[in-house]
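Illustration 12: Diguanylate cyclase/phosphodiesterase with PAS/PAC sensor(S).
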Amino acid sequence: MSAEPDGPEDRLRRFATIWGRAVFPVTSTSSTRPEFEKQLVPLARRLSEALRARAFDPDTGRAVGAALVEAHCTDPEALSRTLDCVDAYLVLYCGGDGDGEDLRARSARLQHAMAAGYAQALRERTLAEQEAIAQAALRAQGVVAQALHATEARFRAVFEGAAIGIGIADLKGNVLQVNAALLRMFGLSEQSLRGRSVLDWTHPDDAPQTWVLYDELVRGDREHYHLEKAFYRPDGTVLWTNLTVSLLRDADGEPQYQLALMEDTTERRLLNLRLRYEATHDALTGLPNRTFFFERLEKALSAGEGQRFGLCYLDLDGFKTVNDSLGHAAGDRLLVEVADRLQSCATAPGEMVARLGGDEFVALTTGPDTQHTVDELATRIMNALLAPVGVDGRDLTVRGSIGVVEGPAGERSPAEVLRSADITMYRAKSAGGNRFELADPEADARAITRHGLTTALPAALERGEFFIEYQPLVHLGDGSVRGAEALVRWLHPQHGVLSPDRFIPLAEHTGLIVPLGRWVLEQSVRQAHAWRERRGGADVAGPLRINVNLSPCQLAHPGLVQDTVDILERTGVEPDALCLEVTESALIGADDDLLKPLRRLSEMGVDIALDDFGTGYSNLANLRRLPVSVLKLDRSFTQSMQQFPADPVDLKIVEGIVSLAHSLDLAVTVEGVETGAQAEQLRILGCDTAQGWYYARPGPPDRLHELALVDAAG
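Figure caption equivalent — predicted structure in token form:
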């Protein structure tokens, strides 16, 4: 038994050996098979490098295809075997650890490029042979009188032994002579082909200039022309050729005959069509793929004035669950069924369906009235998904979210249209799914802005674009400033100052909230230390405390406790000067693992405040198990107290919450206080501290220091 290749070079040589064994039997070369395989190693290396390159370069594939022709692999079977070998073994032996689907797509594109390079090189070689034959024919005709027998022998040898088809006709188009290769191409006998007129060989796929060039040649205005032309065989099949027609003149220079040289390109054309199909269609569903769709979309968007387009971008809801629970094979069968249903929805002229990848599909309609047709198309798609799909004996319910974009041609690029459709589709999905939504330029702009902010967040933290404002916490009993809540802001270079609601959710989503929250905590604690130093260490009305918000992501981060301890130790601030605020919704149903870091911080002396209390519908009895020392009552309970008289129901609710909190030895803080009447009513109800615009808006740290000094002096 031989050992398996254990390194990239071994695997590369193994691939070259397999390739050589497949191609050598149909190669016209004087080399031995080991020598031939050695020639293939550098070609295999180029294919391997192109397969794994960062940017795909089709020139490598074309160069390898041309190199095969130089190595005398000119038999059509050599190309077919080469492509089969590359398709089966290139990714296996040379793909490394890359993404399999992407490598297979690259392999298919490499095969297409190799076929193109092979065809081009073979064509150039054939043209060179054709030119040599034409020159030989001309020389033979020119010296007929001097060496008739010798010239005739040479011409006959070239004429009969050539691998390409050769025919001679007079200037009226009557066929005079044909060689054996031409007879084989057409499947006719010499008797049936002689005497036929060239003018009878028209084909519907003839290029418009075909017969114009022919007329110019027989008039003597042109010496030769070259083009691709199709012919019908007697059995009805089509023969595709590279056709070169040259004019033969007599000794006086007068036009006398026409010489046609034909290369049979039928198999090569079919191969190119097959590779083109594979490169532009999805292997699983048979639908056009992303490449083909973008070609069609670009064509639709560049249509003339008065033309419009409509696009439906579909994403299946919950498809990942199908893959995870039933397996990818079941997911694939579901995708095939969905593709068939979508295909039946887009049968009108100007409509197409494509699969962009995964469970994402797109339907395109074009014409002057797509405002109506695109809505109808989206409705047909939604109706087509109503019936369950049977997979492995289960009836799977199919739901989808569709983003619809419609508009005039010529105003947007394909990328802009698809981005708008994608944004709209996610808007439909976030609204519950199983629906379609129409694109909204304002919603698109907001989504694009959110994306821009998301991508700019990491650099913004590094560049120091964030700053903190502080809103004072006032004791309702004596009006003294007891501390402040730290509120982070983003000074964006383009959008100006952004409030937390604009970027904190984005930071949560990206995970940047952890380093951002750590920065806010350290800056705030340092500021608390600076305030206490400026007060001369006087503990006039209790310690000046700093409140810092903790997001759910920070709460679950394993480094929370250690980061807090490190910051307090570096700044020299006692734990009782810090209060961490956690929203009630983040602690609903929290298990002991989630509460453990809060308990450790509470045991150290750090206060824990339950923020937005009353909005999470939590069980009040759970307060006993939470390591909190402060309740921050949500402003929705106290808004009615801004006017007199206050809502008696709200008064009872607040009174009950305060009583419950105090019975559990919890302090109560109220946010959103905006009037003196509201502050007084909350004082009467027994609330401990408050914050809001009535006292001060969030501002720079010096303002809070001034307020604290005024209180101390009073």
